[in-house]
Design a protein that fits this description.
Layout lengths: L3 H4 L2 E5 L5 H10 L5 E5 L1 E4 L7 H5 L17 E5 L3 E4 L14 E7 L4 E5 L8 E4 L1 E4 L10 E6 L1 E3 L2 E3 L10 E6 L8 H7 L7 E5 L14 H10 L10
Parallel strand pairs: 1-12, 1-13, 13-14
Antiparallel strand pairs: 2-4, 3-10, 5-6, 5-11, 6-7, 7-8, 9-10
Protein name: DNA helicase Pif1-like 2B domain-containing protein
Pfam family, one: Pif1_2B_dom
Organism: Arachis hypogaea (Peanut)
Length: 234
């Protein structure tokens, strides 16, 4: 599991986050090194006094919140595990969002790791905990999470791997890929078709993905622009 040459340029992709934790836990279990668990600290951010909504979100509830771009409440890591940064830390050292690393040492307050897929001259880097605060104004309350800005990277979503080129991609499809363009993004991440593999594991008994098209959109366009000819949906 700590074979650096084997980990370089490889990714297991899934359409949604539902199965990521399951796959990452399975791959981590194959690593026989000692496991160290890092738990996040969470708190509500009160602005202008405590309101009723903020008061009901107890310290026991906050760790259960899964928010896009945030690390998990519990990070179970081992030396030799493959991880990915989910925040920009230091561009000069190559510590950017989406960078892959291999863990070389686990301390109580710091993670030592080695960069993968990088020509940066820095051999080892050190990762500290960061404070994460969601910026979405639609949330009924504000909270903060303090945790290491990493995630296990044996499995990840298709969106997370955009703009990267890999040697080997395995796509796990437990249900049909719905979002337009996701399948294209997943397939186009690999440089050679020999490095692309699909695992279809769902109950639909089909190896096809439906191209979801809403005819109403095209009809509205035609009516808006007074297009006289018919549009054939492919």
């Amino acid at each position: 599991m700590a074979n650096e040459s084997h980990l370089k340029g490889r990714a297991n992709l899934v359409p949604t986050i539902n199965v990521i934790d399951e796959l990452n836990e399975y791959m981590t279990a194959l690593n026989k090194n000692e496991c160290k668990t890092y738990v996040s600290s969470n708190k509500c951010v009160f602005e202008g006094g405590v309101n009723a909504i903020e008061a009901m979100h107890t310290p026991r509830f906050l760790p259960t919140i899964r928010y896009s771009g945030f690390p998990n409440h519990e990070l179970k890591l081992k030396v030799g595990c493959s991880i990915m940064l989910i925040r920009n830390i230091d561009h000069s050292s190559g510590l950017c969002d989406g960078m892959w690393l291999i863990i070389t040492r686990l301390g109580d307050k710091v993670i030592e790791a080695k960069l993968l897929n990088s020509n940066n001259c820095v051999d080892k880097v050190f990762i500290l905990r960061m404070t994460f605060t969601p910026l979405d104004v639609r949330l009924p309350f504000r909270f903060q999470k303090r945790q290491f800005s990493v995630m296990l990277s044996y499995a990840m979503t298709i969106n997370k791997i955009q703009e990267q080129s890999l040697e080997h991609v395995r796509l796990l499809r437990k249900k049909s890929i719905f979002i337009h363009g996701q399948l294209y993004v997943a397939i186009s991440r690999v440089r050679n078709k020999k490095g692309l593999k699909f695992l279809i594991a769902h109950d639909e008994n089909t190896d096809k993905t439906e191209n979801v098209v809403y005819p109403e959109v095209f009809r509205n366009i035609r009516q808006s622009f007074n297009i006289g000819y018919s549009l054939k949906l492919l």
